[in-house]
Amino acid sequence: MWVFVCVSYAALAAAAFAQDADDIIGLWITVGGDSHIEIYKKGKLYFGRIAGLKKPNYELREVDGTAGQPRVDRNNPDASLRNRPLIGLELMTNFLFEERIWRNGRIYNPRNGKTYRSNLRLTKNGALKVRGYIGFSWFGGSSVWRRVTE
Fold first, then answer.
1. Model confidence over 85-118: pLDDT tens digits?
2. pTM recorded for the entire structure
3. Exposed, middle or buried: residue 27 (CB in 10 Å: 0-12, 13-18, 19+)?
C-alpha cells in the first residue's frame, strides 16, 4: 500500500511540474521592472522582443538633444542599427525546447550592444531563469523574470 502511495505521489509531483514547450509564450517582466519582453514562437523556435519599457523615452538630463524621443539601440556595434527603436526590438532568437530547457538561443543586451548565447528554464514557482554566457554556460550570468499578470 505504501509503495502505491509513494509512487502515486511522485507521479503527481512530476506531472505538476511537467512543462510544455509553449509554457514560456507570453509577456515577462525583467529584473528591476525596466522592460516587458514578449516571448513568441516561429515554427519550432522561440523568440522574444521588447514589448514595453518603464522609461520608453529619453529624459531631459540623459542625452543631449534627445529628451522626449523614443529610446533607440544606440549601443549596437553596427552603426546602421543604432537608430532602430528599442520597443519592438527582437532581442531573443532561436531557442529550441529540449528536456525542459529552451537551449542554444541568443540574447542581445541593448545596454552594452553585446549578444550572448543563452538558455531559458522555468522554475517551480513559474518564474523564467534566463542564463546568458560566452563560450561555456558557467562563464555567464543569470537573471529571473516574472510573468506579467496584468
1. 999 999 999 999 999 999 999 999 999 999 999 9
2. 0.83
3. middle
Provide the b/e sequence for 121-147 (b: ≥16 CB within 10 Å): bbeeeeebebbbbeeeeeeeeeeebee
Q: Calculate the alpha carbon distances from 92 to 78, 106, 143 in Å.
A: 17, 6, 14
Distance CA 52, CA 59 (A): 16
What is the pairing mode between strands 26-29 and 35-42?
Answer: antiparallel
Domains delineated in the chain: 2-57+87-147 (2.40.128.520)
Integer distance in angstroms from the first to the last C-alpha of the chain? 45
C-alpha cell at 146: 516574472
Name the DSSP letter for residue 32.
Answer: G
